[in-house]
Amino acid sequence: MTILYEIAHARAGDKGDRLNVSVIAYYAKDYTQLVEQVTVDRIREILADRNPAAITRYELPNLGALNFVIDSVLDGGVNASLDLDGHGKCLSYRILGMHLDPN
Questions:
Q1: With 0-12 CB in 10 A as exposed, 13-18 as middle and 19+ as buried, what is 31?
Q2: pTM
Q3: Which residues does 5 contact at the CB level (< 8 Å), separation at least 6?
Q4: Whole-number Å distance between alpha carbons of 38 and 41
Q5: Where are the domains of the chain?
Q6: Which long-range contacts (CB under 8 A, 24 or more apart) does 88-94 make?
Q7: Can you give the pLDDT at residue 84?
Protein backbone atom coordinates (compact mmCIF):
# COMPACT_ATOMS: atom_id res chain seq x y z
CA MET A 1 0.00 0.00 0.00
CA THR A 2 1.21 3.48 -0.87
CA ILE A 3 0.85 6.48 1.39
CA LEU A 4 0.17 9.73 -0.43
CA TYR A 5 3.30 11.46 0.90
CA GLU A 6 5.41 8.85 -0.92
CA ILE A 7 4.28 10.14 -4.33
CA ALA A 8 3.27 13.75 -3.62
CA HIS A 9 3.85 16.79 -1.48
CA ALA A 10 1.45 19.52 -0.39
CA ARG A 11 1.28 23.28 -0.13
CA ALA A 12 -1.32 24.89 2.07
CA GLY A 13 -2.63 28.33 2.78
CA ASP A 14 -5.47 29.67 4.83
CA LYS A 15 -7.50 32.82 4.85
CA GLY A 16 -10.05 33.14 7.60
CA ASP A 17 -12.00 29.90 7.75
CA ARG A 18 -11.04 28.75 4.22
CA LEU A 19 -8.22 26.28 3.59
CA ASN A 20 -6.49 25.90 0.25
CA VAL A 21 -4.42 22.70 -0.17
CA SER A 22 -2.52 21.70 -3.29
CA VAL A 23 -1.39 18.09 -3.62
CA ILE A 24 1.45 17.91 -6.15
CA ALA A 25 2.84 14.69 -7.63
CA TYR A 26 6.62 14.35 -7.49
CA TYR A 27 6.54 12.65 -10.91
CA ALA A 28 4.13 13.16 -13.83
CA LYS A 29 3.47 9.40 -13.98
CA ASP A 30 1.72 9.57 -10.59
CA TYR A 31 -0.73 12.35 -11.47
CA THR A 32 -3.36 9.91 -12.77
CA GLN A 33 -3.34 8.10 -9.42
CA LEU A 34 -3.92 11.41 -7.65
CA VAL A 35 -6.88 12.21 -9.90
CA GLU A 36 -8.40 8.77 -9.37
CA GLN A 37 -7.91 8.45 -5.62
CA VAL A 38 -7.54 11.87 -4.00
CA THR A 39 -11.20 12.77 -4.32
CA VAL A 40 -13.48 15.22 -2.57
CA ASP A 41 -15.11 12.29 -0.75
CA ARG A 42 -11.74 11.03 0.53
CA ILE A 43 -10.76 14.51 1.73
CA ARG A 44 -14.14 14.86 3.44
CA GLU A 45 -13.52 11.53 5.25
CA ILE A 46 -10.07 12.62 6.43
CA LEU A 47 -11.36 15.97 7.71
CA ALA A 48 -14.72 14.67 8.99
CA ASP A 49 -13.97 15.76 12.57
CA ARG A 50 -13.52 19.33 11.24
CA ASN A 51 -16.94 19.20 9.49
CA PRO A 52 -16.04 21.10 6.29
CA ALA A 53 -18.99 22.98 4.77
CA ALA A 54 -17.82 22.62 1.17
CA ILE A 55 -14.87 21.12 -0.69
CA THR A 56 -14.06 22.03 -4.28
CA ARG A 57 -11.37 20.19 -6.26
CA TYR A 58 -9.51 21.73 -9.18
CA GLU A 59 -7.38 19.58 -11.49
CA LEU A 60 -4.13 21.15 -12.70
CA PRO A 61 -2.68 18.57 -15.12
CA ASN A 62 0.09 20.82 -16.45
CA LEU A 63 1.41 21.09 -12.89
CA GLY A 64 0.62 17.48 -11.93
CA ALA A 65 -1.44 18.86 -9.07
CA LEU A 66 -4.85 18.92 -7.48
CA ASN A 67 -6.02 21.99 -5.58
CA PHE A 68 -8.68 21.72 -2.89
CA VAL A 69 -10.55 24.71 -1.50
CA ILE A 70 -12.11 23.69 1.80
CA ASP A 71 -14.60 25.97 3.55
CA SER A 72 -15.40 26.24 7.27
CA VAL A 73 -12.68 23.89 8.38
CA LEU A 74 -10.44 26.13 10.53
CA ASP A 75 -12.75 26.86 13.47
CA GLY A 76 -13.28 30.43 12.31
CA GLY A 77 -9.67 31.02 11.31
CA VAL A 78 -6.35 31.26 13.07
CA ASN A 79 -7.18 34.40 15.04
CA ALA A 80 -10.65 33.22 16.08
CA SER A 81 -9.83 29.63 17.03
CA LEU A 82 -8.78 28.20 20.37
CA ASP A 83 -6.81 25.45 18.57
CA LEU A 84 -3.10 25.54 19.29
CA ASP A 85 -2.35 25.30 15.58
CA GLY A 86 -5.34 26.04 13.40
CA HIS A 87 -3.23 26.76 10.35
CA GLY A 88 -3.95 24.84 7.17
CA LYS A 89 -0.46 23.35 7.05
CA CYS A 90 -1.16 20.86 9.82
CA LEU A 91 -4.32 19.69 8.00
CA SER A 92 -2.37 19.22 4.77
CA TYR A 93 -0.16 16.72 6.62
CA ARG A 94 -3.28 14.75 7.54
CA ILE A 95 -4.19 14.61 3.86
CA LEU A 96 -0.70 13.41 2.93
CA GLY A 97 -1.19 10.47 5.30
CA MET A 98 -3.96 9.12 3.04
CA HIS A 99 -3.53 5.47 2.05
CA LEU A 100 -3.77 4.80 -1.69
CA ASP A 101 -4.68 1.59 -3.45
CA PRO A 102 -1.83 0.06 -5.45
CA ASN A 103 -1.77 1.13 -9.06
A1: buried
A2: 0.86
A3: 96, 97
A4: 8
A5: 2-100
A6: 88/12, 88/13, 88/14, 88/19, 88/20, 88/21, 89/12, 91/12, 91/19, 91/21, 91/47, 91/50, 92/10, 92/11, 92/12, 92/21, 93/10, 94/46, 94/47
A7: 47
Length of the chain: 103
Predicted confidence (pLDDT) at residue 7 exceeds the cutoff of 70: yes
Fold of the domain built from segment(s) 2-100: Alpha-Beta Plaits (3.30.70)
How confident is the model at residue 90, as a pLDDT?
Answer: 75
Q: Which pLDDT tens digit goes with each residue over 65-103?
A: 999 999 988 866 565 555 545 566 778 888 888 899 886
